Amino acid sequence: MNQESLEPNSAAGSPNENGETSEKKLSEALQFKLKNLPTSPGVYQFKDKDERVIYVGKAKNLRARVQSYFRNLSEHSGKTRLLVRRIMDLELILTGTEVEALILENNLIKQLKPRYNINLKDDKSYPYIVVTNEPFPRVFPTRNVRRDGSKYYGPYTETRQMRMLLDAISEIFQVRSCSLNMTDENIAARKFKVCLDYHIKKCLGPCEALQSREDYDAMIDEVKKLLRGKTKDIVRSLESRMKNYAKELKFEYAAEIKRQLEALERYSARQKVLTTDEIDRDIFAVAREGDDACGTVFKVRDGKLLGSQHFYFSNVEDEPMANLVGRLLEKYYLETTDILPNEIFTAEQPSNQDAIEALLQKRMSEIGEQKKVHFVIPQIGDKAKLVDMCAANAKHLLSEYQLQKQKRGEAKAIPHAVRSLERDLRLAKPPRRIECFDNSNFQGTDPVASMICFVDGKPKKSDYRRFKIKTVEGANDFASMAEIIERRYTGSLAESLPMPDLIVVDGGKGQLSSAYAVLQKSGVGVPVIGLAKRLEEVFFPNEQLPHNLPKTSSSLKLLQQVRDEAHRFAITFHRELRSKRTLQTELTEIEGIGKTKAEKLLKTFGSVAEVKKASAEALAEAVGKKAAERIFAHFQGKAD
């Protein structure tokens, strides 16, 4: 980062390309800290004017990550720009590795609950199954996880599933249900007597030394395998023991193991089979709507669905989906006590995959496992269907969560401008999600289009889309509008983005008619209007005369804001394409002038036109004497 970018009049305190200006200038103390950041991994904490921590983050390289917040504010999301304006101080905690930074960040967020961090939580306290850390361990359900050396399995989001598993353990194994302090000394002193469980063969009487600790611990190892979903391993172990007993003519013991195998088979038959390859997998998916999101995890062991778990996010507006997936994986693998899978399925690559892989490697080294966990993003076939099924569960849970928030009065209030637009356009429901389309071209060249999205009256930039016109030649706004409407509402975008409550077309009756025809043909029953620039008139399908909204109304102002944003987005994309085409055709066709020198020329002179006017001396200062001579001769030759 150069020194100028951190001066008081830097990008953090000067107008950006949208005319926005931050509310403060960087203090000298903060500038000094930013210029002297270390490159080591660690955790950073941003503080406001009251010394409150408002954001906690981790980084593999603290200098690169922290300084990125103060560069090019206009390119950040609205939430990030707001965060940067409130930063008054910075505090660092250096760590030895990126994994240590990840763990520390997670703990600090739980402790401090910073305002601008994503809030990720379970919706309630789910039960676990615990295998206690004591002589002759017990197995029972609990909601209290203690650091006492016991093994906890879960959490179980469905109590019915947990009860089914506990019943299977009770039927297959003879695990004691008492809470006696069964030390070797107490057993040797004959302090205990067998209870009813022994007589009905639910327990083998370790309290009176009728079962050795070695045999009991071997049984508990089998219980742990069952809790991890490794039923195939248990079957193989039990079958081997049954055959050995039969060879030794111990038919009573062999019959007991046969009973266990039959009970295990009944339990396995009740489990939902998802795959036939019997590979251990964790499947992750995130659904998002507005400022809320839900992340779901499917735990698949030996090809069977062992259980699922879900988490709710808040404060996720404008957050990239890759970040949400990364946060979900962090949360899950920092807290789970389950065995690690062979594969992790996600709908898209998490933004912090390197850190997650390092965390998994650390976990495996701690438990002595030697295997590689593979990240997979399935595209087609049965594996993709597993991710889709996980995503469908996440969407369902999110809709239920938001419904509950509405009932509790916690849902975000609908803005006045959105309510006004519902009234003025006579819509059936508030247009909370608005999508607006605009075309852009220059004398028929480089035709492009844009789609922007407003949710509750505010831009949702993660749902913006840009289109290159593919099927239309020349400047035909009507046909171009029809193409992009069809691509948005009948192609892959129709599945990846939610349907809007209102569609706005930038233009008059012609553009509106083209869009409406495509929507009718596709069976998309979303209200659509056209907004003409000249008189700010609103057009409805199948109506000849326009409607005029009050010039000072909040509803018209919202429509103008939506339309202007779509126009800005389309123009920006069009200029990028023109710049690339101009760069390639005008400058790079000169012998010896590649992309790097062409970009340097444009940066120095501002445009190709100014490069043409430049003197040989000025060109030489920018790209050297030999290249300058070629450029000067090229354009002089064209002028002649």
UniProtKB/TrEMBL annotation:
GIY-YIG domain ranges (all copies): 39-118
Domain UVR: start-end pairs: 232-267
Domain of life: Bacteria
Record has Aminoacyl-tRNA synthetase as a keyword: no
Start and end residues of each stretch annotated as Disordered: 1-25
Gene Ontology CC terms: cytoplasm; excinuclease repair complex
Coiled coil regions in record: none
Locations listed in the record: Cytoplasm
Entry-linked Gene3D superfamilies: 5' to 3' exonuclease, C-terminal subdomain, GIY-YIG endonuclease, UVR domain, UvrC, RNAse H endonuclease domain
Domain UvrC family homology region profile: 283-519
One MF term in the entry's GO annotations: excinuclease ABC activity
PANTHER family for the chain: UVRABC SYSTEM PROTEIN C, UVRC/OXIDOREDUCTASE
NCBIfam families: PRK00558.1-5, uvrC
Family: Belongs to the UvrC family.
Function, as annotated: The UvrABC repair system catalyzes the recognition and processing of DNA lesions. UvrC both incises the 5' and 3' sides of the lesion. The N-terminal half is responsible for the 3' incision and the C-terminal half is responsible for the 5' incision.
Complex and partners: Interacts with UvrB in an incision complex.
Name listed for the protein in its UniProt record: UvrABC system protein C
Organism: Chloroherpeton thalassium (strain ATCC 35110 / GB-78)
Taxonomic lineage: Bacteria, Pseudomonadati, Chlorobiota, Chlorobiia, Chlorobiales
